[in-house]
Specification:
Length: about 70
């Protein structure tokens, strides 16, 4: 299957997100408990979330396979 430029671009975005999350993980030990709580709340409220995007992708895949 040939890969489109759009797919490559989206995969690069995912790589960028993963790099950012590695940075967040690296900083966590230096943060206060209050900062960690605020960051956790902020991430949970993020919209769209990674989970919601995966659900949408799975929905689209279900349509294709049925």
């Amino acid at each position: 299957m040939p890969v489109t430029g759009e797919l490559i671009r989206l995969m690069n975005y995912v790589d960028d997100i993963a790099a950012i999350l590695r940075r967040v993980n690296a900083v966590l030990p230096t943060m206060s408990e209050e900062e960690k709580v605020r960051l956790a709340e902020y991430i949970r409220k993020s919209d769209p979330s990674l989970e919601s995007v995966l659900k949408q992708l799975d929905k689209q895949l279900d349509k294709v396979t049925k």
